[in-house]
Amino acid sequence: MHTKDHYEMREYNLDLIEDDQDSSVCAEGRPYSIYPSKGGLNSNFLRDIISRTLHSLPVNIDPIPKDIIEDFGLLSLHDAYMGIHKPKELKEADLARKRLIFDEFFYLQLGRLFQILEGLDTKIEKDGLLDKYRKPELNTAFVEEWSSLTMNFLKALPYSLTSSQLSAASEIIWDLKQPVPMNRLLQGWEEKDPLNESGFGFAALGDVGCGKTVVAFLACMEVIGSGYQAAFMVPTELLALQHYDQLTKLLDKMKGVECKPSISLLTGSTPSKQSRVIREGLQNGDISLVIGTHSLIAEKVEFSALRIAVVDEQHRFGVIQRGRFNSK
């Protein structure tokens, strides 16, 4: 460790290479795994145990089907264990880490899928859900089943959506119509709680300009078209104002809609009198969509029928803050 004017070595290990034929993990030019000493177990002991375990590890231990491994260009589980503990080069260690990270997300998604299936009553519902995952291209076919409000909003856009945006919007709207909660990660979108008593929400993740906002607006229009309310929370007042102005302009361009959704802007700078009017509109259902900052999760703010809550740049909000929408 580095001190004021010199370095100090608090813990070290010496491994001797007896000859050029030594194939140990510490051979010259190869990455060297370091195991921190914990709970009275020193790193040499841990290294010895792990080395013995790897030596007796069977090759065919991979529970994930081979076609999935090949589709994602992953190492086998055996090679991943060897690569993370005894890599021949740094690239091998990186590929091993990629495989182990994939496994964590794979089993998380698989476990969640089983939970959703248990919540479905009929075989038709279960087959429909499984087909959605087996054939993701079917999700784009649901565009024709969007509400008239959502379709008119889509037509009002001054540009055409990319296939990725349409696919993301289709999957979210498909989830909105399901009777069971959904929680998954999709191309920068994290979704929670579909259109049921607990509502539906998702956090917007991803780089600026990647099309998150318009996809969120489409999901909001689908909910509003079904007679419910939507909330859009952002971390700053400037961003809230930008989203409000953008949505207002798009709604003004909509044609063929007799009654356009009513939207409001609620931030910490909103005058007290106007805030009270907005809160009353949300409570009695006159306001369909509200865009704002953390003011949306204040105790005074109540909704008549909130069914979707979008949290933009969700990493800038705490878990408890985001969870407060569940009580709205």
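(ticket continues) Second input and output from the same batch:
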Amino acid sequence: MRIICPAITTDATMDSNVQDLSFSIVWSPLPFVTWLLPFIGHLGICDSQGIASDFRGSYYVGSDGRMAFGAPTRALKVDVGEIGAEQWDAAIRQANSTYNQRIHNICCDNCHSHVACALNDMHVRAFGIEKWSMINLCFLMFFRSRFLYQWAILSQFGPLLLLILIITLVKTL
């Protein structure tokens, strides 16, 4: 079944207006931060209907399908195996409830922690990972997730490449 994700379909540059993001971890670039460190971004997790939830700030988890820093540009589908949609969705609801009571800390308790909490609550084992953390999610998304549309790669790597080009040109003058 293909799910229409409202956070995705509003982007006119999409290759397709329909993205199946059910059972996926989704990623979007953080302005300024991703421009300098392209492996750092904002994470969310989609329920069985493809609706994204993300820890947006202290005491606030958005679960309306939209992400704090714009539409996701990358996604990684998780094989839920024997877990099933009910347990997947229940774990996301529980993580949302937990993180709606937490203070956001950019380094220690953030959107990556929220996603890890949901994955650990549902006891999912995927990509050789049993114990989910901020670190393994960061690397997993950087190396294994797919770009959702053709220009998404530029939103992640373009600013850094442009900065390197400018520095290189300035040094050669």
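Agent notes: The two ends are 56 Å apart (CA to CA). The chain is about 40% helix and 15% strand. Closing as not reproducible unless the customer responds.
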